[in-house]
Amino acid sequence: MDAWFVQPDGLTRHSAGELPQLLERTDGITWVDVASWDAESETTLTEVFHCHPLVVSACRQRNHVPTVHGYASHVFVILHAPLAGDSGHVHMLELDQVVGRNYLVTIHGPLNPAVDLADALRDTDGVRERIEQGRFRPRSAAELSYAIGTSVARLQRALIGDVAERLPDLEQEVMAADFRHPEVLLERLFLLRHELLIA
Question: What is this structure's pTM?
Answer without folding.
Answer: 0.80
